[in-house]
From TrEMBL:
Biological process per Gene Ontology, one example term: negative regulation of DNA-templated transcription
Alphabetized UniProt keyword annotations: DNA-binding, Transcription, Transcription regulation
Region (Disordered): 1-36
Pfam families: TetR_C_1 (PF02909), TetR_N (PF00440)
Name of this chain's protein: TetR family transcriptional regulator
PANTHER family: HTH-TYPE TRANSCRIPTIONAL REGULATOR RUTR (PTHR30055), TRANSCRIPTIONAL REGULATORY PROTEIN (PTHR30055:SF151)
Keyword Transferase belongs to the record: no
Domain called HTH tetR-type: residue spans: 37-97
This protein's record includes keyword Transcription: yes
DNA-binding region, residue intervals: 60-79
Organism: Georgenia thermotolerans
GO molecular function terms noted in the UniProt entry: DNA-binding transcription factor activity; transcription cis-regulatory region binding
Organismal lineage: Bacteria, Bacillati, Actinomycetota, Actinomycetes, Micrococcales
Length: 258
């Protein structure tokens, strides 16, 4: 975690979601009585290590304190609550790539890279998709929004449309990332109740017939619903291709003279 410049001076007028204020504090500042060797960064890192190794359910203030060799109360001098800790974790695992952007690249290449870089975070930290209820907006999350909008900076459409595109893609990445994690867990032999992993081939054969469902029957006969059948698409890339094709068509229509 790097020290941010902080939010604008008038941000104090806004009611921030739980955990957001902590994300914009100068690095390592305790709420009271500093303890040598303890910091927000150390607490966050310990919590991330626990989540990576044992799953998000294993993370608690008491468990993190034990990993650091301190009392649970000592953590509260730095992190106000578990909710704030989860916000710190979510922001800390999502730094922007070190490789700088190339503004000369076409917007579509930049936006697809933006999407794929974020999907990679789900693979590195599978519990990331479980924090959908964490609304805190930290420096790294703001950085991703900034980079997504910058990918469209040379496109001649309204700022509102650019923001809507980045927002819709972000929602897609969340669901795509959750599915990616579930698929990898299933490949490793773990149980998963993700709907994308249901055996649609067997279920549809049991409830459909050629007379009422000729299109489904044709797809079943072609092995399209079978994981063992022919697969000529990149599952992770197909959704992005469909969305970006749609974005491209939308931008073309919305551009002056489009």
């Amino acid at each position: 975690m790097t020290e941010s410049q902080g939010p604008p001076a008038d941000a104090g007028e806004v009611t921030l979601p739980p955990g957001t204020a902590e994300l914009w504090q100068p690095a390592g500042r305790p709420r009271r009585g500093p303890r040598p060797g303890l910091s927000v960064e150390a607490i966050t890192r310990a919590a991330i290590d626990i989540a990576d190794g044992e799953g998000l359910a294993a993370v608690s203030m008491a468990r993190v304190a034990k990993a650091l060799g301190v009392t649970t109360m000592a953590l509260y001098r730095y992190v106000a609550s578990k909710e704030a800790l989860l916000a710190l974790m979510l922001d800390a695992i999502a730094p922007l790539p070190e490789e700088p952007e190339d503004p000369a690249l076409p917007w579509r290449v930049r936006l697809e890279t933006w999407c794929r870089d974020q999907l990679a975070l789900f693979v590195e930290h599978p519990w990331m998709g479980q924090l959908v209820g964490v609304a805190a907006v930290g420096p790294n999350r703001v950085g991703w929004i900034e980079r997504g909008l910058r990918a469209l900076e040379d496109v001649r459409v309204s700022e509102g449309l650019k923001t809507a595109i980045v927002g819709r893609l972000s929602l897609h990445l969340l669901t795509e990332g959750q599915m990616l994690v579930a698929m990898r867990a299933a490949d490793a032999g773990a149980d998963s109740d993700h709907p994308a992993l249901l055996d649609f081939n067997a279920m549809l054969r049991a409830v459909t017939n050629p007379q009422d469902h000729p299109a489904i029957t044709a797809a079943l006969d072609a092995g399209a619903f079978s994981n063992d059948g022919p697969n000529d698409v990149d599952d992770a890339g197909l959704g992005l291709t469909i969305l970006l094709d749609g974005v491209e068509a939308l931008l073309r229509r919305a551009a002056p003279g489009g």
